[in-house]
UniProtKB/TrEMBL annotation:
Descriptive protein name: ATP-dependent chaperone ClpB
Keyword tags: ATP-binding, Chaperone, Nucleotide-binding
GO biological process, one term: cellular response to heat
Parts forming coiled coils: none
GO molecular function: ATP binding; ATP hydrolysis activity
Domain ATPase AAA-type core: 106-204
InterPro entries: ATPase_AAA_core, ClpA/B, ClpA/B_CS2, ClpA_ClpB, P-loop_NTPase
Source species of the chain: Staphylococcus nepalensis
UniProt key word Nucleotide-binding: yes
Length: 204
């Protein structure tokens, strides 16, 4: 009974639906926007695929950043209140970097935010990631209180060649490798070991 139902009921319906779909695809009157299969792909679609492969935001690939940079200061001020000078300095540094006035082998900017809890240090980092890279997920937070010991340097940047764990990479280096377009927040950096500071000095 079940086989008969499939043979004489559902299968013919599916075949009819497929024929109608094939006819629609071959109809010259059907616009590209309505087609399921199209011969031409858009810049946005290419950007989406490459973005998934590389971790680079789509807007970085297919959209001019001019408008984004022009409004960066306003966007940051909307999210971070009461820190006008800090926001202005961060926005100016990013704009200068995007204009090419920086070493291409260095980060876009390195900032030291000081102050008690709740004044907006982390929020500014989140706002910057969201503004530049379209999502707060592009902010990588590393708790530097976990790097108080001398040997913890290898956890941050990976073990030297020949040592155990060399192939695994470090917390910082792996995070940047997987997501090169990101804001790195080194939280409570004052608690890190001095050897960690020496490494960061070379990076920043």
């Amino acid at each position: 009974e079940k086989a008969a139902e499939l043979q004489h009921g559902k299968i013919p319906q599916l075949e009819k639906g497929l024929r109608e779909l094939e006819d629609a695809l071959q109809d010259d009157q059907v616009g590209d926007e309505e087609r399921i299969i199209r011969e031409i792909v858009t810049d946005e679609e290419i950007g989406d695929i490459v973005s998934q492969w590389t971790g680079i935001p789509v807007t970085k690939l297919v959209e001019s950043e001019r408008d984004k940079l022009l409004h960066l200061n306003d966007i940051l001020h909307e999210r971070v209140v009461g820190q006008d000078k800090a926001v202005d300095l961060v926005a100016d540094a990013v704009i200068r970097a995007r204009a090419g006035i920086k070493d291409p082998n260095r980060p876009i900017g390195s900032f030291l935010f000081l102050g008690p809890t709740g004044v907006g240090k982390t929020e500014l980092a989140k706002a910057l990631a969201s503004s530049l890279f379209d999502s707060e997920k592009h902010m990588i937070r590393i708790d530097m209180s976990e790097y108080m010991e001398k040997h913890s340097v290898s956890r941050l940047i990976g073990a030297p060649p020949g040592y155990v764990g060399h192939d695994e990479g470090g917390q910082l280096t792996e995070a940047v490798r997987r997501n090169p377009y990101s804001v790195i927040l080194l939280d409570e950096v004052e608690k890190a070991h001095s050897d960690v500071f020496n490494v960061l000095l070379q990076l920043l």
